């Protein structure tokens, strides 16, 4: 296993609950397996995964174990619940090599019977006043998106409802709308918000309540507006989230879940329980974005996913082989992830 640190400046600073991020820092992982070189990416995100320091330390430990016991020994050193980004990096490299050795794109390594040319994707619109929000959604629609996610929760419930109404008035009924509250609301606020947007055609609200409040999320279900859980998968094991009957939708971030394989398994488990999976990134480099895209491509009839985040980076690890048109992202049909490991470099 070979690891190389990188830092990708963002096109504009990203405000998070853990502070403002100006660059995405991580580690490239290369691994030779079955006669092929696989590439992976470990890009921790504060508040979602382990720290960059812990990620690097975990990969160093795994690399030492790999020299003695191969990839199985390395994986045993990378626990998804403590160092998910590190595990994602090595697991992706291993899967990329496996798929290359088998001569299939990664999504077909997950499901040999699948053939998927494109995956539907949504646009994301940040917090702003009603007119600017409506303008931003209208621009996304003009670019071909038919599904948009609005960030809510930074303003009062009434103000956010006004923003949603302004969007609906501007773009009409044919555009799917979603909202993401990032756990900002109390139970009372969430109830008011759900009641208010029920007639505005909002598919679901992502993480309306605090991540730990599974019972509160369960109580919100049952109406025309669905409940999607995202941060809850950080604070609670997937088994607890699924058994709580607290979600209509699961937002799956492979970097947070410990790798593409874990995300794919959880997507299928969710489907078995009537819960829809939506795959998103954590503002990653092209290697991790491609891994998330292949997870989505391996799930039949998946809805719009949050994968169009490459434009948030001022530069990337390699040229992106995907394109986005009419709300669809193309899925590379080359072996593995669809990017040549020789083209992936911290200095791309």
TrEMBL record:
One of its GO terms (biological process) is amino acid catabolic process. Its cofactor is a divalent metal cation. Its EC number is 4.2.1.113. SMART domains: MR_MLE. InterPro entries: Enolase-like_C_sf, Enolase-like_N, Enolase_C-like, Mandel_Rmase/mucon_lact_enz_CS, Mandelate_racemase_C, OSB_synthase_MenC1, OSBS_N. It holds the Pfam family MR_MLE_C. It comes from the Archaea. The keyword Zinc does not apply. Pathway: Quinol/quinone metabolism; menaquinone biosynthesis; Quinol/quinone metabolism; 1,4-dihydroxy-2-naphthoate biosynthesis; 1,4-dihydroxy-2-naphthoate from chorismate: step 4/7. Residues 316-348 are annotated as: Disordered. Keywords: Lyase, Magnesium, Menaquinone biosynthesis, Metal-binding. Residues 130-224 form the Mandelate racemase/muconate lactonizing enzyme C-terminal domain. SUPFAM superfamilies: Enolase C-terminal domain-like, Enolase N-terminal domain-like. Mg(2+) binds at residues 180, 206, 230. Converts 2-succinyl-6-hydroxy-2,4-cyclohexadiene-1-carboxylate (SHCHC) to 2-succinylbenzoate (OSB). Belongs to the mandelate racemase/muconate lactonizing enzyme family. MenC type 1 subfamily. This is o-succinylbenzoate synthase.
């Amino acid at each position: 296993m070979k690891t190389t640190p990188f830092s990708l400046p963002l096109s504009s600073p990203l405000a998070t609950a853990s502070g403002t991020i100006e660059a995405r820092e991580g580690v490239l992982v290369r691994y030779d397996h079955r006669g092929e070189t696989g590439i992976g990416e470990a890009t921790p995100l504060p508040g979602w995964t382990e720290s960059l320091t812990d990620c690097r330390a975990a990969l160093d430990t795994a690399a030492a174990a790999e020299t003695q016991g191969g990839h199985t020994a390395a994986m045993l050193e990378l626990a998804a619940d403590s160092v998910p980004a590190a595990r994602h990096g090595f697991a992706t490299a291993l899967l990329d090599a496996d798929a290359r050795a088998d001569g299939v794109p990664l999504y077909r390594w997950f499901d040999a019977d699948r053939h998927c040319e494109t995956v539907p994707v949504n646009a994301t619109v940040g917090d702003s006043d009603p007119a600017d929000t409506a303008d931003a959604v209208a621009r996304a629609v003009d670019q071909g998106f038919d599904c948009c996610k609005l960030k809510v929760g930074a303003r009062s419930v009434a103000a956010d409802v006004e923003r949603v109404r302004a969007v609906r008035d501007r773009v009409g009924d044919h555009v799917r709308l979603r909202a993401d509250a990032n756990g900002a609301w109390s139970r009372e606020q969430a109830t008011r918000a759900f009641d208010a947007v029920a007639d505005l055609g909002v598919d679901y609200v992502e993480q309306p309540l605090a991540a730990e409040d599974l019972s509160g999320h369960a109580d919100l279900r049952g109406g025309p507006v669905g409940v999607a859980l995202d941060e809850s998968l950080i604070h609670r094991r997937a088994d607890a989230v699924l058994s709580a009957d607290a979600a209509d939708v699961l937002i799956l971030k492979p970097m947070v879940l410990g790798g593409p394989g874990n995300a794919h398994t959880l997507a299928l488990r969710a489907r078995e329980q009537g819960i829809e999976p939506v795959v998103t990134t954590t503002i990653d480099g092209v290697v991790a974005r491609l891994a998330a895209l292949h997870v989505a491509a391996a799930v039949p009839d998946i809805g719009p996913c949050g994968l169009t985040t490459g434009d948030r980076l001022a530069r990337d690890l390699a040229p992106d082989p995907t394109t986005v048109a009419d709300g669809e992202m193309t899925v590379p049909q080359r072996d593995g992830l669809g990017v040549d490991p020789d083209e992936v470099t911290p200095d791309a």
